[in-house]
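Researcher: Next sequence.
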Amino acid sequence: MNKLSKVLVLILITMLFIGCVKKHRRSHTYYIINETEKSFYVHVDYDEKEIYETRSIYIEGKTEEPILLFTKSGIVLECSSCSYYPASPDQYSEIWFYNIADTSSVNFWELFYSDVMLDDQLRTSIYKTGGECRETERDIDNEYLFRCIHITDEFLDLFEKDYSMLEKFTEYYP
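Model: Next structure:
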């Protein structure tokens, strides 16, 4: 193969690669709705544009409207010829829910995005759409995902006893 042929093959391969891989901005917005009478402390750690962010909120009893937890966006690669398409940008370290009433907690991210298999009905009862929690929206270069985490009695069943809360939340436990 002569030098010109090698250059043409390289250009063709590059054009094919550019044609199948597209940068795509994806934004995730998470809300919380407490459907129980219990009080919760919610803590999230995440990386936003290479800046480490921490957000904590306290929810006291039932909420009528969704409470904004955080919004995070990132660039993902979309490959039209690939079987793997990332479900989300590399985004969250942890989302912790602490049930103040009975010193129990759950790491939401480990629970929902690990190998633990959750019942579809339970997953659906915790992630609901409607209102602020609308369906995914898309335009040419962007995708906007809206997630509402509903704190339900079924969700509370997944919490585990966490006596370390006695030290973390001394203002709630005399």
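Model: The first helix runs from residue 3 to 20. The first strand starts at residue 21 and ends at 34.
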